[in-house]
Write a structure and sequence with these properties.
The chain is about 40% helix and about 10% strand. A hairpin with a 2-residue loop joins strand 1 (about 5-10) and strand 2. The protein has helices spanning about 5, 20-30, 50-60, 65-70, 70-75, 85-90, 110, 125-135, 145-155, 165-170, 185-190, 190-200, 210-220, 220-225, 260-275, and strands at about 5-10, 15, 40, 95-100, 115-120, 180-185. It is an alpha/beta fold. It has a single domain (about 5-285), classed as Rossmann fold. It is globular, with a radius of gyration of 18 Å. The strands form two sheets. A four-stranded parallel sheet has the order 4-3-5-6. A two-stranded antiparallel sheet has the order 1-2. The chain contains 15 helices and six strands. The protein binds adenosine-3'-5'-diphosphate. Adenosine-3'-5'-diphosphate binds next to helix 3, helix 8 and helix 14.
């Protein structure tokens, strides 16, 4: 597929044509959000697949049936992707939905709704590394080139869903502060049970101690890596070639240290710091 056919430009953001069309984006724009809807919003490579595993289990009290029988993209569909219409219109509440959209591109009905949002972010250096490997294995994305070339694209926002800094800033919006929960990938790695309990409280659900154990164990990286409904092994090799890099690749914090040179790290950090200047929030990795 030629580069120009691989992406469509949606309000300045690059979206892969494999899963996005003008119709799917129109569907997202006019989607009727219900108050009981739960969104997990992420910039790509921040833990979306992980949330597709977690959300149904927190909402249903720990019943593993859906995560063993439904592929993640149908279990918790992306609002902006082509499969959303097939799944969401007939799904009983509470609907769990993922999205990579920035705040300002959410459906009109979202802003007036009471739908809850869990916004997951991750150290952008680890996102860049994860995305670099993802571009190598996904034939529907451009070849990433060298790591140095890819970092320049990442920093200028010439990657899926634009700049990380724009995405993160867009979702720090006081208009929805009473219905959004911010969590980091790093917190999830460090204390999954603690984060799951936080999700349950936020969503008004109860997880018994046994259910919490079961869900935490099922949502471990190693367990998800073996779950065919979540590890993308159902996708044909021509589209995702896991021999080049598995989708569930390492699942760790700080892999950037194995990829960035000191010069790349300094440039990356300086640009991100400058773009985040004036933001009132801080991340644990800012202090590194
Ligand atoms: P790595 O490439 O660093 O391993 P997304 O789902 O948003 O595309 O993000 C993919 C990243 O989340 C990958 O990171 C993947 O391994 C990681 N991930 C998915 N499930 C995980 C889990 N249970 N524990 C830790 N990391 C997980």
């Amino acid at each position: 597929m030629a580069t120009s056919d691989k992406y469509l430009n949606y309000h300045g953001l690059l979206l892969p044509t494999l899963a996005h069309t003008e119709e799917s984006l129109q569907y997202a724009r006019t989607f009727q959000v219900q108050d009981g809807d739960v969104f997990a919003v992420t910039y790509p490579k921040s833990g979306t697949t992980w949330m597709q595993e977690i959300l149904p289990l927190v909402l249903n009290g720990g019943d593993l049936a859906p995560v063993h029988s439904i592929p993640n993209w149908d279990r918790v569909p992306w609002l902006e992707e082509t499969r959303a219409a097939l799944i969401l219109d007939s799904q009983p509440p509470p609907r769990a939905i993922v999205s990579h959209l920035p705040y300002w591109l959410m459906p009109q009905s979202f802003y007036q709704s009471k739908a809850k949002v869990i916004y997951v972010t991750r150290n952008p250096k680890d996102i860049a590394v994860s995305s670099f490997h993802f571009h190598k294995m996904a034939s529907f994305l451009d070849d990433p080139g060298t790591f140095d070339e890819f970092l320049e694209k990442f920093l200028s926002g010439q990657v899926l869903f634009g700049k990380w800094t724009d995405h993160v800033k867009s979702w720090r919006n006081p208009d929805i502060e009473d219905r959004i929960l911010y969590v980091t990938y790093e917190e999830m790695v460090q204390d999954l049970k603690g984060v799951l309990s936080q999700f349950a409280r936020f969503l008004g659900r109860e997880l018994t101690p046994e259910a919490l154990e079961k869900v935490a164990s099922h949502c471990q990286f190693s367990s998800m890596k073996n779950n065919a409904m979540s590890n993308y092994s159902l996708v044909p090799q021509e589209i995702m070639d896991s021999s080049k890099s598995p989708f569930l690749r390492k699942g760790i914090v700080g892999d950037w240290r194995n990829h960035f040179s000191p010069e790349q790290e300094a440039r990356f950090s300086a640009i991100v710091r400058e773009e985040m200047k004036g933001s009132s929030f801080q991340f644990s990795w800012d202090k590194e």
